[in-house]
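User: For a benchmark we're assembling, each entry needs the component sequences followed by a predicted structure for the full assembly. Here are entry 17's components. Please fill in the structure.
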Amino acid sequence: MPLVFPGPPLASLYHCIPLLTCLTGQVVLPLGDQVAAASAELTISDPAQAKEFALVDDAGALRPLAANDNVDTGEAPPSQATTAVTCDFSDVRFSAEFPQGRFGRCERGDDGRVIIHLEPEGTPINPSPWHAFTVEADSERTIGVEIRSEYADTRYSPKLSHDRNTWKVMEYEREGSAQFFTVEVGAEKVWIAGQELFDNNDYQIWLAKLKEQHPQLERIELGQSEEGRELPALVHYGSGNEWLLLLGRQHPPEITGAMAMRTFVETLLNDDELSPGFLARYNILIAPNLNPDGVAAGNWRHNANGVDLNRDWFSREQAETQAVHRFISDVTEPGGVLVYGIDFHSTFRDVFYTTPGDYLTKEPDFSFDWLNMLAAAVAPNAIREQPSANAAQGNFKQYMADTHGTHAVTYEVADNSDRLTIGLIATHGATTLMTYMIARPLPVIDSPQQ
Ligand SMILES: [Zn+2]
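Assistant: Structure for entry 17:
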């Protein structure tokens, strides 16, 4: 039986594996990682910090929100198309003119610091102030930068890269709801962003590489986004009619979820021991980039129409959800069977939001059994499962349950999780899922009437 207890500092009920680790309320981060070390102040056992980072995440409002948090109301805010921004001071230049680039505006403070204001694509919005910009100067110098977010407290620890590929967490000071840091700049531009960058082109490169490594994969276009960008996907065809669905990036800033998905997918395809048997049986949809317009614009949350896609799965008013629904219908109408779905996201902690076992009659223990296997494989890292069902919310997990009678999970990775641990859990997540699914009984095929 699932263990259920009120887990501080959250007001909701959830159960933890292993129990003791979760009772401490700590996010378990291995020591020694630069991300974890630099972000130690984000430990959610500190209620003040938890409040500061209060989020309306993919299970809905889980805990009291800070006074300035904007709760998802379900209203679609007016679209506010992001325009590329540059700030050109005489000695130093800031630019967000690249995919995922974003800041609202900037100004020079009295002490010479550059103040970057973060602005969302619309309001109300989940408090996920995203920023990504480059900085360059005529000659080498050290400049002070303040990140200000009037719409919601800053969420991401700023990160620095000299080549856009290798990132390190910057040392910064918190000044109220703002962040302040210094950066050495020169003629060669540096990138500063809330998380590592992974844009639409990076997905194209990644999917092309997977296709090259695994020629049996079919590269498809699920459809097009509201602004006409490709919704890219790979499909693996097994021998039967059973499907695993893997979705990602409904929310543009959720990079740690994207990291987990990449490792998860690569492990499904590459594990020497398990992949052959798993792939021989199951069909897989790999749709990792469902909000390319939001990614391109550096949106905090929404698609080009100002809609949170993970609230649109029942009304399906957006091209992105319609495209996935169309694919699923094309699979299920001729007799395809959905076995499980995983939707990758990021929030303030590592957690797997599942559908309660007794909500569905079909394979009620799927998520619980799999996550217990995962917990055993990655101990002493904690695996948190939080079952929830909210028919009004319109997220993918609920759509899988209510429209298709199938369990699914929202796989949430903490913004500040140690990147090595993200990989570790995703790798074992894939191997334990394969082990579990290979052992599932084969579907009963109706035999013709005698
Ligand atoms: Zn999300």
